[in-house]
Amino acid sequence: MRPTDGPAHRPDRTPAAGGLAAGRPDPQRGGATVLLLAMGLVFVAFGTFGAAIVSAGMASQQAAVAADLGALAGATRALDGDAAACASASDLAGRNDGRLVGCHLDGLDVLVTVEVAFTPLPGLTRVAAASARAGPVRG
Length: 139
Prior knowledge:
The protein is of the alpha+beta class. It has helices at residues 31-76, 82-95, and strands at residues 99-106, 109-121, 124-134. Strands 1-2-3 form a three-stranded antiparallel sheet. A hairpin with a 2-residue loop joins strand 2 (109-121) and strand 3 (124-134). Helix 1 (31-76) runs antiparallel to helix 2 (82-95). The chain is rod-shaped, with a radius of gyration of 33 Å.
């Protein structure tokens, strides 16, 4: 057997060559840990922003539902006047976590605008708005 064959002879690992036996750390050691932590941070960031987008979509749907129900509630009181119709619409919008920001009686039609506040990210508050119209069926 020649001295350069086999596992017994490794010139890069000898103390004279400056390898691991010389007491120097391997420069690639721990690289996988840093890469794994970076990938984990990327997944957390994408998850956080994905949750923010879903939160905005849900708030938009909640505002639309509150506006629709508020308009229907206001239309049931349209014969009682603008104040009664808008008070009824405001009550129902509030029960759906919305805030009535606009109400107008146009004949027997009620037009309402509702806002819903939501927090997509910690420390960031936004508002989703929706409008709806309700009134008698016209043939």
